[in-house]
Amino acid sequence: MATERTLSIIKPDATKRNLTGKVVAKFEEAGLRVVASKRIQLSTAQAGEFYAEHKERPFYAELVSFMVSEPVVVQVLEGEGAIAKNREVMGATDPAQAADGTIRKEFALSKGENSVHGSDSPEAAAREIAFFFSGLELVG
Ligand code: CMP
Fold it and tell me: How far is the CA of 136 from the centre of ligand 1 (A)?
């Protein structure tokens, strides 16, 4: 399997509860390497643009206001099959459906406050990484 890069966001519910290190440990234990990382405060415009594909969904406004409610940690994870592996480590969107040992099973509060975001395809990963990082900031 090819080495890939994917975008991860540690969401406000997790940063607020001081869980950043525990979440990163899950990625590292799964063999994913953090090749870029920064803690930022998203603006409403930035969060709205990042989640533009969900604009028509009933939860869009709630999603955007949640994502700006506290700082987030945006990261680029690298590894073999990193896009699928990250999604496996995160677990299902709804923590009630997430498998044991996953980040969302252990830490998420609800479908919305679900602790992490991960790119869902190679195209999304390329777009989402470029949204937050310049090439110079990726140091594998
Ligand atoms: P994420 O992987 O960041 O991509 C879109 C997000 O929308 C998703 O994780 C959830 O946090 C959020 N989401 C999906 N369904 C719902 C829902 N029913 N209510 C609130 N937020 C949701």
Answer: 30
Angle between the 20-29 and 82-90 helix axes, to the nearest 10 degrees?
130
Instruction: Name the CA radius of gyration of the chain, rounded.
Output: 14
Ligand 1, atom 3, residue with closest C-alpha: 117
Closest by CA to 119, choosing from 1, 3, 8, is 8
Interatomic CA distance for residues 42 and 30, integer angstroms? 28
pLDDT digits (tens, 9 = 90+) for 77-103: 999 999 999 999 999 999 999 999 999
Q: How far apart are CA 50 and CA 34, in angstroms?
A: 21
The number of the ligand 1 atom at minimal distance from the alpha carbon of 113 is 11
SS (H, E, C) 30-57: CCCEEEEEEEECCCHHHHHHHCHHHCCC
Residue nearest to atom 21 of ligand 1 (CA): 112
Total-model pTM: 0.97
